[in-house]
Amino acid sequence: MNQPHARFIDNRFLQIALGSYVLLWLALAIHPVDRSDWFLENLLVFATASVLIPTYRKFQLSNLSCALILLFLALHAIGAHYTYAKVPIGFWLRDFLHLQRNHFDRVIHFGFGFLLLYPMRELLRRSAGARETWAAWLAVAALAALSSFFEILEGIIAQIVRPDLGIAYLGTQGDIWDAQKDMTAAFAGAILATLLLLSAQLYRRNLTRD
């Protein structure tokens, strides 16, 4: 599953994974809770697709990396359909854990760091030739920077495109520190993924020595 494939037409796993995501995205595009917010949320999807599709052959990300990216985008599609503050499973978690708000947005920001760490690390290794450990920590820094950039960009878009959509689009739910907490969640996800990845590498090396 981790082996890169140069041609999409020969990659059955990626065809199935991408096809499943597209079907989910199309289903969630039907009658979203707020169409204007849905469009703004999907700017991320359109931007991601515009980068990944033309560069697929050049960078040849592994199936695992592609699957992790698609999983994150699938979770994002759910948030875009309901608006992040109104995702049903978020209300269930709120009641089950006795929380004060719908934390689905925090889960997605954590997933941004946790799920995209491996693809970012792989990209840095392939494009910059970084060694495994350095690539992992550089990926953490890159994802933290991207998380901060997206928070700034979201605020700008909300003000320029539709100021009246600010609450729904930003999903602050009355928390003035929402942006900082979102970035912290993304950073924590990236750190956890890195520690797990490096631990797995160390474990494999010890097995090889034995």
Discrete helix count? 10
State the order of secondary-structure elements, H for helix, E for strand: HHHHHHHHHH
> What fraction strand?
under 5%
Q: Sheet with the most strands?
A: none
DSSP strand count: 0
What oligomeric arrangement do these chains adopt?
Answer: single chain
What is the share of helical residues?
A: over 70%
Q: How many structural domains can be distinguished in the coordinates? A: 1
Give the rounded overall mean pLDDT: 86
| Anisotropy-based shape | globular
Helix-and-strand structural type: mainly alpha
Unreliable residue runs: none
Gyration radius, rounded: 18 Å
Distance between the termini: 26 Å
Write up this protein:
By secondary structure, the protein is mainly alpha-helical. The chain has one domain (8-209). Helix content is 76%, strand content 0%. The protein is built from 10 helices and no strands. The protein has helices at 12-28, 35-41, 43-52, 56-59, 63-82, 88-97, 104-128, 132-160, 166-170, 178-209. Helix 1 (12-28) packs parallel to helix 5 and helix 7 crosses helix 8 (132-160). The longest helix has 32 residues, at 178-209. The model has no long low-confidence stretch (mean pLDDT 86).
Features:
single chain, 210 residues, mainly alpha, 10 helices, globular
